[in-house]
Amino acid sequence: MGLQPLEFSDCYLDSPWFRERVRAHEAELEKTNKFIKELLKDGKNLIAATKNLSAAQRKFAHSLRDFKFEFIGDAETDDERYIDASLHEFSNFLKNLEEQREILALSVTETLIKPLERFRKEQLGAVKEEKKKFDKETEKNYSLLEKHLNLSAKKKELQLQEADNLVEQNRKHFYELSLEYVCKLQEIQERKKFECVEPVLSFFQGLFTFYHQGYELAKDFNHYKMALQINIQNTRNRFEGTRSEVEELMNKIRRNPQEHKRANHFTMEGYLYVQEKRPAPFGSSWVKHYCMYRKETKKFTMIPFEHRSGGKVGDEELFVLTYCTKRNIDTIDRRFCFDLEASDRPGVPVTMQAFSEEDRKLWMEALDGKEAVTVIFKLDKIGFTIIKKCISAVETRGINDQGLYRVVGVSSKVQRLLSLLMDAKTCNEVDLENSVDWEVKTITSAMKQYLRSLPEPLMTYELHGEFIVPAKSGSPESRVNAVHFLVHKLPEKNKEMLEILVKHLANVSKHAKRNLMTVANLGVVFGPTLMRPQEETVAAIMDLKFQNIVVEILIENHEKIFKTLPDATFPEPISMSVSPPNAPPRQSRRQGQRIKRPLAVYNLCLELDDADSHSCPREDTPTGSIDSLSSQSPTPAFSGSPPGLLDGNHLIMDSGDLAGWTTNLPGQSRPSMVSWMNIPSANPAATNTALSTFFFPNPATGSDRAVESAAHRKARAVYPCEAEHSSELSFQIGAIFEDVQFSREPGWLEGTLNGKRGLIPQNYVQFL
């Protein structure tokens, strides 16, 4: 039951029930007043909190904008540049969002706070004033009436008549005021319904406008997010490959530090303790120096340096060496010592102490200038014969073999084949095209082993740095022109061999649909084979990715590079110190494109080993991008391969590594790499079961075979999907698929949903 209406006729009766109804109306208006007052307080707190949030978000955006990643080396890949620019993009998105939030805060003040405050002051405040007048007139009316009724009847008639007139006038005034007050009460009761709700409606309109603007920003951000996820995945895959190379170099240096010292203009350098003689009472002292020697000039430099004093460096001392002699322990009470004599101090030898006997031998050899270089393979007639025979056999027998040049042969067989081919007497007797004794993977491994064993890489140490430069910067056309120019600077034999090989690799890439060896994959395999720096350093490992790009350029443009002469006016390649150009604007990239079918990339490193081979060669790095890096494709693809070890004839993988290898990005339209399994690492038993169905030994051949699992399992959708083809299934998150099997099409599963059977993207589901 709501409030009872106030009848105007009841104003004249002014009955107790009328007064009770008036008090009910007054109580309701008081409750409304308190509600509006509390709402205004909360609204102001909301505005203050919004402003605080906006300030915090802006500070966060400034922090993102002001930070910049530093990189190792002298250039970045395109993916790395896009990642570097991502923080600035994030800052811009936040800035745009906070601008909309400021608009919301202003609209709350104008559309909610001010109208409610105006209604409370002007309307409810007016009712309060009317109530005061009504109460005052009520008191006055009934006081006067009681006083009038107490008049004595003995008063003069004129006095009584004047008193009656006064009471009547006062009663009329009271009735008029009562009518106005009742009218005002009922008016406010009706007015509050729209005067209070309309500002709240405006507030929600502004709030939803803000959320809509956020939704629009999210849609714009989604395209950028998809491209950035690809950049991040590519960078992560390159990091995995680079990390393994760095760890391998670290272990090599750990095992034999002397064989992996950096090549520089010093023949020998390192720490030695130098004897400093003092006057007779004080004897002598031994001070640690960092020493450097150049055999060309016979200049010996030593700098005192003490690690324990915070790395304090003393004054450099330089002298020309005349001779060096070994000190025996019968002449000095210290081990590992030798004497040097300077040309400016004849007859005054300087005694030095090495850290060990081996260290002293190295110093003695360096100071005497003894070095030995052994060359095994040569770029001669035999070498050309080997390469041509191998290429002919590969193109005849194995051009369509999956993983050509990535699957490696048994080490002992490869060495035996190379020894036969290197011998002029037996080379012509080896029939690679028709003999079943030599597998294709043995032939391809022999080719790569020969090229890696040359005393100098095919593209030479001298031009290595110049080839790397165009791969790090410039437009695709300028890169091709620079590589074209440099190829014709190679020695004639090197260029001839390179042309033969690249022509063959171009032919291999034309069969990529069958052998899965795209230009990018061939670049990964042959980059370190055809190009390598003169010294192994971390900086050189960071350039591996650019070596791959150079090989991709050669393959994609072999007709132009080898069949035409370079432009005679083409300038010399730019210096390594030139900074790479800024990354192109994000809008120039193809965004939001969806791959209709996942492209298969050969991702397994399978090696059949015998007693003398138990590891994969270095070229078995993770598979590169599907798109060629040299073409600067604006839509990079994922790359990745499962980490694992080879034990006997079995491929062993760790379940955690396997889960980390599979690419599973939310919002990705379709998988762009072969994802063989998508099993959570939290369930090792399930992982091992799946692995056992994928790889098993073949007793007849002693080799591994990758087979498609025939296990019929259930799977649950973890992302929604809209079918793009009649053979695909559409589904929402949580859909349960029956009878799930691995499809013949890599990256896809086959399953049944609601009685319909079709294809399912593998990285959209989890096995139950």
Automatic annotation (TrEMBL):
Keyword annotations of the record: Cell membrane, Cytoplasm, Endosome, GTPase activation, Membrane, SH3 domain
**A Pfam family in this protein?**
BAR_3
The residue ranges of the Rho-GAP domain are 377-562
> Which subcellular locations apply to this protein?
Cell membrane; Cytoplasm, Perinuclear region; Endosome membrane
PH domain location: 265-372
List the GO biological process terms. cytoskeleton organization; negative regulation of apoptotic process; signal transduction
Q: Which Gene Ontology molecular-function terms are recorded?
A: GTPase activator activity
Q: Where is this region: Disordered?
A: 573-594, 613-643
Coiled-coil regions in this chain?
none
- GO cellular component terms, semicolon-separated: cytosol; endosome membrane; perinuclear region of cytoplasm; plasma membrane
Predominant place of localization: membrane
- Output the PROSITE patterns linked to this UniProt entry: PH_DOMAIN, RHOGAP, SH3
Q: Please report the stretch or stretches of sequence annotated as the SH3 domain.
A: 710-768
- The biased composition feature labelled Polar residues covers 622-638
The source's domain of life comes to Eukaryota
Q: What is this protein for, i.e. what is its function?
A: GTPase-activating protein that catalyzes the conversion of active GTP-bound Rho GTPases to their inactive GDP-bound form, thus suppressing various Rho GTPase-mediated cellular processes. Also converts Cdc42 to an inactive GDP-bound state. Essential for PTKB2 regulation of cytoskeletal organization via Rho family GTPases. Inhibits PAK2 proteolytic fragment PAK-2p34 kinase activity and changes its localization from the nucleus to the perinuclear region. Stabilizes PAK-2p34 thereby increasing stimulation of cell death.
What is the name listed in the Swiss-Prot or TrEMBL entry for this protein? Rho GTPase-activating protein 10
Origin species: Pachyramphus minor
